[in-house]
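Protocol step 4 of 6.
Sequence for Glycosyltransferase (Marinobacterium lacunae) entered exactly as in the expression construct, tag removed. Do not edit the line below.
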Amino acid sequence: MTPSPFYQDIRDQYEAFLEDCATNFNPDETLRIDLHCHDYNSDVPDELWGRLLRLPETWLKTDELVEALERAGTDLITVTNHNNARSCWTLQEQQKTVLTGTEFTCHFPGDELSVHVLIYGFNREQERTLNDLRHDIYAFCAFAKREELPTVLPHPLFFYTHGREVNPDVLERFALLFERFEVLNGQRGYWQNLLTLRWIESLTPERINAWSRKHGINPREYCRDPYRKTLTGGSDDHNGLFAGRCGTLLNVPNLKQRLEAGETLPRLALEAIYEGRTAPYGFVGEEEKLTTTFLDYFAQVVLNMEDPGLLRMLLHKGPLKDKMLCLALSNLLQELRRHKYTLTFLETFHQALKGRKPSLLVNLGVSREFKPTLKLIKQIARTQRHEPERFPEVLREAIPQLHRQISHTLFSRMHEQIAKIDHDNLSDMPIDELVRLLEVPTHFRALFSGERSGGPDMSQVNIGKLMDKLTFPALSAAVLAGAAFASTRVLYSNRAFLDRLAGELGATRHPQRVLWLTDTFVDRNGVSSALRDMLTQVQKHQLPIDLLVCHPTLKSQPNLQVIRPLTAFHFNQLGEQTIHVPDLLEVQKLFERGGYDRIICSTELCMGPIALYLKQAYSVPAWFYMHTDWLEFLSRKTGLDNHAQDRIRRLIRAFYQQFDGTFVLNEDHHEWLTGPEMALPDEQVKLTAHWAGVGSEVASLMPRPHNEAPILLYVGRLSEEKGVMDLPDIWERVKKQHPNTQLWIAGSGPAEKKLRKAAPEANFFGWVEQSQIPQLYQQADLLLLPSRFDTFGCVILEAMSSGLPTLAYNCKGPKSIIRHGRSGLLAEDRKEMASCAIEYLDNTAYQGRLRVGALARCLDYSPKRILNDLLGDMGMNGAVKWTRSEAEPHPKRISPA
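Step 5 output, structure tokens:
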């Protein structure tokens, strides 16, 4: 997709800044150094999970890091491991030219706040003192200033608050404590690096003086010149993949002469850093850099991890939830280590990132279906080896291609295997049976060995055998997707803080834009119709909303993003629904490039989990738009007992609870979701509505009969949960009083054959295009809606827009729209529905009043007002400026019937 204006603008701004930096210094008087990189001596991670699993931050050997730095063209080596300079001391002992450096984790006393601080040029005794002082950042920085040891604050907008909400004044304290800031971090994106730059540019002497008085901090105790802020860069590389490709230019006047006079590179570099003669160089890490880093790290975890020990993990300091999650992850990793094909893939990929081509045995052992995957891995290795400057560009294309190719293989094998599981075709398996399989035995080994657990659950499926075919592509695809998720999560973990800062700076503020995900858009159902009407209004009023759908043939258009599916699954049980599965990484890239900052999802099956993935990855709010009552659907379509239905209810509740809010279309659902069965907070459940979406221009479909016989009309899907099998009985009762009454049925669906048999004299029109439906409304006398399943009933508003009243059951959606006896009719059962129809047809004056009332009620459902309320409920009150002609005189909320 074309990048959004916001995404392109931040790229252009930051690239222009880097171009200016490149011309700051005379090349003959400039040194290149990566001031922020790590090797295997960063062995105690700050993250709790790393400590619980006993994982170092990297297994990279010092000599491999040095080789990568030299290959990237750096003039001087430093290794900034966490809280130790062991690698620097080792290199010095080997007579290497090294600038000593460390990245210390420092703490604010009495505050749940920790930051990383880079420091250079110390000796062993000073290192010990710094380690003692790092638990009080004020003492640490004061000591560094007294000893003339330059400090740099890396990634200033990323720090550790240990689960607490970030105090906005933390940046004020940073400005008082530091004079050197890393504005180019190779593992951060354009937005964070640019925000950092703009914040530093905003640090005027007046602001620093005001903050000094506010916090009671004298910045001269920590900075030589608190008003002069200087800029650095570093790769923040842990794997040796991008080391040296981001870094800092150091200006050393008379460099050649001073070196000839016997001065050392470390001494000259330290002087340049201390005096602030620095500028960043390199390129910004987009998603491919951090994703590749996580991929390589995960590969090394699987290849090198040892059992962390159950007792040690349980007795370790930390919340029980984290311990349980780490225990599950440890078991997963141990299972991974048992699968030789996955291990071979991870090892081959890891070596390719180092520039080493796959071994002969790997080439010979790869099956035909994985040849394209091996070709991509070879391309990565070849580029790293021969064209390192193109390495990020190749990764940007290769990683998504790897995921797509492996996912294609996974789904192909999955379709083969599903067809063999106890049924010739899983799509024909009754819902009752599928629900009973929604259980996992407490004895996990039963999943892998085929041992039955005694009850109907997933142990009926021998996952061990299934994994013989699926393990490698499934785990490989999961590793790729997991790395993409982890990298994005790290970049956006403090998004609220970044948004607030951008607003305060008045620059680089992320736009307010919604991505609306749905599994259905062109299908013949009410959800699709409502979403198509939504798109029409979004396009008409240029609202900050884009709809996203996965479909094999549909074309993108303004405000409609379409991606092609990896595969599709057909579910007869869900009303002949076909679910198209998108490429997760493609959705993720679209979200990033599109400049979105919030999500709505309309469907649960595929796009629902993807919406939650994006919510967690990008730290954005997500809402669910409830179109379908699945419990009602299952109760009418299946013979599930109360226990099975309760299990489904709990699953639905767990799903809805993950969202920041839920939009519902009627009061019944609002009460249900906020009641004891679902227990969602009242403030998170919002009422919304649809509107009549039928156009004004209609095609001639069928002239009204000359005998003026009464016409009862049904429009909608022909399925039993829609109550269509009530129509014949209602019609027969009406004909006893009005024998000439006709029944017109517009729609199609699985119950059509059965309905035709029950009402052979009815007029069946089949599926009618939306543009032709108003002609039916204009000819009919009364619309029948015998469904107790509809959450709203768009067809009611469509009929009302043509002045046609509706006779519906007194439940959920219909009763929230229809005012009985004024704009339509409500009944409790078939007998009462027939009686209401007869009474209506008996009285022409009554018909006239209801027609006028129906048209008036339809006017209450203004799409502009409904959409304005929707955006407001998502915190976008100022996102849309309606024109004066679009102003609404009606009350803000639609009054219930």
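Step 6, annotate. The radius of gyration is 33 Å.
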